[in-house]
Design goal:
single chain, globular
């Protein structure tokens, strides 16, 4: 019983989504339409990308890249710039979750070695914002983008064009944020251990995961069927790298399935469907932001997409909605747990910094959205 309660606390969104889906079954009895609720393509691509990123993490590729980029940093602002921009740009390809899982522990280690622990909270907070907003540029940057891109009738370039203005604004804001960090001109001395040459076996695995990632991109671009990706990833990892296969976030996949069932059933209850359509229609950006604050932006995207066809505005809303509360983006919980795992006594201070920075960024980006959509 304790394990069940612990799991429910850890996977709160999954638990709520599953309970709501079960309740909806009492109103709409299971039938042949249920299978049509589920977007198997999104689930397949998401599964493939999660396993591929687990594989890359296990080879240490991203750590090696990070260490090489730190070689030319001599001042504190340069060090923080590199650490934040690693999250910003890598999140566009490896997702915000993986970016934070990789570079936040790396940053904690680096700042400790450099004797710059006073800059730890600003750095990790900016990394979190950078990962959440950098990931919004591409269809594969985060789960909500991948899902909404599958619903939208547009090319990858058109998709990126919708979010490019917000990405550019975020980049400028991140640079300006560095001006607010105390002692930014301070000289630093940080000797990282020389990266050992990557073993031949790891090079081979990086090459294979690189090819699998290329297949994933071709599937996202609608050139290859998603079954090719799922089959290739599953066969390789089940034979050669089962730890990567185990590391995928299966709870997120089940959460998607639960929301698909819930949305499908709500859509068949006319009174509820009409009420939600009325509430969401014309307010996609605002409802996307507000819903994200409570249930996080991935479930918000899935839930609200069932009651509007204006996916463009919803896309903007749920991506900007990743700012705000700690649960607005589940990726934010990753950096929170990583930081507080090392500095439990600073939980309150971290939350204060996190909330302040997120509110400022959210306000400025919402102002930009109002200007762009006027």
């Amino acid at each position: 019983m304790k394990k069940i309660i612990s799991f429910m606390k850890k996977e709160t969104v999954l638990t709520i989504a599953t309970l709501l889906a079960v309740v909806s079954v009492f109103f709409i009895k299971p039938d042949r339409q249920y299978i049509g609720y589920i977007d198997f393509k999104t689930l397949g691509i998401l599964f493939g990308l999660m396993v591929i990123m687990q594989g890359f993490q296990r080879t240490g590729l991203f750590d090696q890249i990070g260490k090489s980029l730190l070689q030319k940093t001599g001042k504190l602002w340069q060090l923080i710039l590199v650490l934040v921009m690693l999250c910003f740009f890598f999140s566009m390809l490896i997702t915000n979750d993986v970016s934070l899982l990789t570079f936040v522990p790396f940053s904690i280690l680096v700042l400790k070695k450099c004797g710059q622990e006073q800059a730890m909270i600003p750095t990790v907070v900016l990394q979190t914002v950078a990962a959440n907003l950098g990931s919004m540029l591409t269809p594969i940057g985060n789960p909500q983008n991948l899902y909404l891109y599958g619903l939208m009738d547009c090319s990858i370039l058109e998709f990126m064009g919708i979010l490019l203005p917000y990405t550019v604004i975020t980049f400028v804001l991140l640079l300006l944020s560095l001006l607010c960090i105390r002692g930014k001109e301070q000289e630093i001395s940080c000797r990282m251990e020389e990266g050992t040459e990557i073993k031949q076996s790891r090079k081979c695995r990086n090459l294979i995961y690189g090819l699998l990632f290329l297949i994933a991109l071709l599937v996202v671009a609608r050139i290859l069927p998603y079954g090719v990706l799922v089959t290739a990833v599953f066969l390789y990892t089940v034979i050669f790298d089962r730890e990567a296969l185990k590391g995928a976030d299966y709870a997120l996949l089940v959460t998607f399935v639960s929301f698909f069932i819930l949305i499908g059933n709500l859509g068949r209850i006319s009174l509820i469907r009409e009420a939600l359509e009325y509430f969401v229609s014309g307010r996609e950006i605002l409802t996307g932001v507000l819903a994200s604050q409570v249930i996080s932006n991935v479930p918000a995207a899935v839930l609200l997409s069932g009651f509007t066809e204006n996916y463009r505005d919803l896309l903007v809303g749920v991506n900007l909605g990743g700012l705000g509360t700690l649960i607005a983006s589940m990726a934010s919980l990753i950096s929170f747990k990583l930081y507080t795992g090392c500095y439990k006594e600073n939980r309150g201070r971290y939350l204060g910094w996190f909330t302040l920075v997120n509110i400022i960024y959210l306000f400025l980006l919402l102002m930009a959205a109002l200007y762009l959509y006027r």
